[in-house]
Design goal:
The complex is a heterodimer of chains A (about 280) and B (about 200).
Chain A: H1 9-12, H2 17-34, H3 36-39, H4 70-106, H5 108-121, H6 126-137, H7 141-151, H8 154-168, H9 171-178, H10 183-219, H11 230-237, H12 245-277
Chain B: H1 2-7, H2 12-26, H3 29-43, H4 61-99, H5 102-109, H6 114-136, H7 138-152, H8 157-166, H9 170-198
Classes of the chains: A mainly alpha (about 280), B mainly alpha (about 200).
């Protein structure tokens, strides 16, 4: 199933309703994040009406204890969540694919060192590393992205390495080397396109994990205080559970649907890949 | 649940199980906790929702155990949901893989019913990798515990860690994280040893 680099992902996979649904979820989220200022032009931190008013035409998701519009907060929270997710996924994709490909192509001591280093990174759960970083340097979206990005690549690297080891034996890689292609050229033109489907699966699942971690930290009150985020909205709801159910329900719903969409997409692509392999 | 789903792949039942487990895996634990408090705690008052013991009465002996247990119901269930979902998904895919193996076909060929092949032959083999997975999930359980303990004000190390980070008590935070890291390592080593004990194919030289 690993043809030369021309076969692209969508062509290879049969259509499946769950994948389309997952894609639709993610596309909707992306659009909301991109056009947050158009959809909800108001400042999410500004008072928009009476405090703790239940969902109505003016405030479709109600207002919080300071009279801030919850729908505005959730729309802008999408942007915060997706910023973290996109940045973390980008960092781990670059690091993971590079480390995996180099380890697989070079082999030997370098391979051993890189893989052991990857295991070392995975020892302490990411959530606790993030807590430590916040304890030492204070909360902030920049360090969260760096920390999660630099600790999330080992799984991807390991999978890419195994794919590369299998690909190395294939004729088209031999042919490329024989015609004088350089190492980076082989990597970019022949290896990367072939590991892409597997990488897509791992990265979508990583993205859903990152959303949950970011939301969990913000729920503990340890997120970036200058940005609205779903987790922080849910944290705020904690003190008003008896008074305002909407403050707890809508942020959680946003998180759950984002994670659900990503898992749906990742899971169905994975199933299609396994199907193609057996 | 995984066993039910694998019985008839792609049936309505299987789709239902898959969708439920996907949902269970997607729902953040603090949200589930808040919903549980909203419905089971406040609306219907089935279970106590705050703390570890009843603050009004000082129980001793067996009554104390029952008191703590009733406070534990909601946090424990909330924390367990995503684990149940994950294990169900893995069991299902593991079973489907095992059913393609030769021994499963042999058993079916000699007249064993499909239900029996699934439960007696495939399930034990599909369950072996789960030991490792459960071991590897301990880290996630700890991070889930920090969040769930906050929702239910459960006085555990999760809540202690959150307070330590909030108060910039770095020494305490560092100590707790090291404690967690060591426990995660110990559990992961023992889960590897357990799976070597129950799976004769794994040997450590």
């Amino acid at each position: 199933m690993h043809g030369p680099a021309s076969a692209s992902l969508p062509k290879r996979l049969p259509r499946a309703p769950s994948r389309l649904m997952g894609l639709a979820f993610i596309a909707a989220l992306g659009l909301v994040a991109l056009f947050a200022d158009r959809i909800a032009p108001a400042d999410p931190f500004a008072t928009a009406g009476p405090a703790l008013s239940s969902p109505s035409g003016r405030h479709p998701m109600g207002t919080d204890n300071l009279g801030r519009d919850l729908a505005t907060g959730i729309v802008h929270g999408t942007r915060t969540s997706l910023t973290v997710v996109v940045a973390v996924v980008a960092i781990s994709a670059v690091v993971g694919i590079t480390v995996g490909a180099v380890a697989g192509l070079r082999g030997g001591v370098l391979d051993l060192l890189l893989m052991r280093f990857g295991e070392l990174v995975q020892v302490v759960p990411r959530f606790f590393l993030a807590l430590l970083v916040i304890a030492y340097f204070g909360p902030g979206i920049d360090r969260l992205i760096l920390l999660l990005g630099l600790t999330s690549w080992p799984l991807l690297a390991r999978v890419v390495r195994i794919e590369v080891l299998a690909l190395k034996q294939r004729e088209f890689v031999d042919a490329a080397v024989a015609t004088g292609a350089s190492g980076p050229r082989v990597l970019a033109a022949h290896i990367v396109p072939n590991v892409l489907p597997v990488a897509v699966v791992l990265l979508t699942l990583l993205a859903s994990r990152i959303i949950l971690i970011e939301a969990g930290l913000a729920f503990l009150g340890l997120g970036d205080q200058n940005r609205v985020s779903w987790g922080a909205l849910a944290n705020n709801a904690q003190n008003f559970l008896q008074l305002a159910w909407w403050m707890a329900v809508f942020p959680g719903l946003a998180i759950a649907s984002a994670v659900f969409g990503l898992n749906l997409l990742g899971g169905s692509v994975n199933e299609a890949l396994e199907h193609g392999r057996s | 649940m995984g066993r039910v789903g694998a019985g008839r792949p792609a049936s309505a039942l299987d789709r239902g199980v898959t969708a439920t487990t996907l949902l269970g895996y997607a729902i953040p634990s603090f949200w589930l906790g808040q919903l549980a408090i909203l419905f089971l705690g406040i609306r219907y008052d089935v279970f106590p929702v705050v703390g570890m013991t009843d603050t009004r009465i000082e129980y001793t002996g067996l009554a104390h155990v029952r008191d703590v247990a009733s406070h534990l119901v909601l946090p424990a269930c909330v924390l367990a949901v995503s684990e149940v979902a994950l294990l169900a998904r893995l069991t299902r895919s593991g079973l489907l893989r095992q059913m393609r193996e030769d021994y499963a076909r042999t058993a079916a060929a000699k007249g064993v019913s499909k239900a029996k092949v699934l439960s007696r032959h495939a399930l034990p083999n599909a369950a072996l990798p789960l030991v490792t997975v459960i071991g590897a999930r301990v880290g996630f359980l700890f991070s889930g515990a920090v969040v769930v303990e906050t929702v239910f004000s459960w006085p555990g190390i999760g809540l202690l860690l959150r307070d330590a980070v909030n108060n910039k008590d770095r020494a305490l935070a560092l100590g707790l994280v090291i404690l967690v890291a060591v426990s995660v390592l110990l559990v992961s080593v023992s889960s590897d040893l357990i799976s070597a004990r129950i799976d004769p194919r794994i040997r450590y030289s």
